[in-house]
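lol ok so funny story. i was supposed to be doing the assay writeup but got distracted and ended up predicting the structure for this chain instead. priorities right. anyway since i did it might as well share w the group, maybe its usefull for someone
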Amino acid sequence: MSKVLQYLSDVYQPYAAIIAYKADSESYRDVGYYLEKRDIRNGKMGAGKPLTQKMLASLIHSIQTSTAQLDMGLYGAMPNNVLYVDTRIDRDRFVWYHGPEERNVYFTESLNIPNGVMKVPGLIYVVEGNRLSMYAFKGKKPSDKLYHSPFMNTSESVCLGNAKVKMPEERTFENVMEYWERMFWNSEFSHLTGENPISGNLAVLTKHLIETGEPFPTDVLTEVKGKKLKDLLK
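and the output, tada:
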């Protein structure tokens, strides 16, 4: 199933059907078409009624708004850390990276890990539709090898948590990048999703790095098998 169809099936439910009738008889050729709307409730289609111009205008406006939400529609100056952009609906992908840096990190109380500043390795962000994926890399800039993102709530696909961030109205490259980064970093880490992403105990290492301020030890990163950077850029 395409990303758009998956999104629609997850978010939307059948509301109404529009049926178009065409005048086939020679006597009524000038009539053209007749549009009828039938409401759908509990999976059942109701009686038909004429589709008025007002109803049609409202429907067109709704479709235009929904389509705009599915399309990234990125514009503006492109930052140097952008790796790939494709804004076509159903093929949209936006990829960028940050080198090693400091980030504020937050945790649920049950983990017994203090909130604080942590030095993190280089990270690649991949946005496809309404889904965020993340990968780590060694060094200051990405090379061909991809490594698992060394955080809780992430495998290749990120489980976005409780951060409340509003999608920017002006979808410049920088605004959209900031939105997804805030969605990730402002959420509380709570649990592992899938296998341990590092060689070692992730909780112990995370707590140690916050308490000491030491750089992230990239030797504990584990390589993603069967996928390279080039696979994200096509």
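Confidence is low (pLDDT under 50) at residues 1-8, 64-70. Residues 20 and 83 are 45 Å apart (CA to CA).
back to the writeup now i swear
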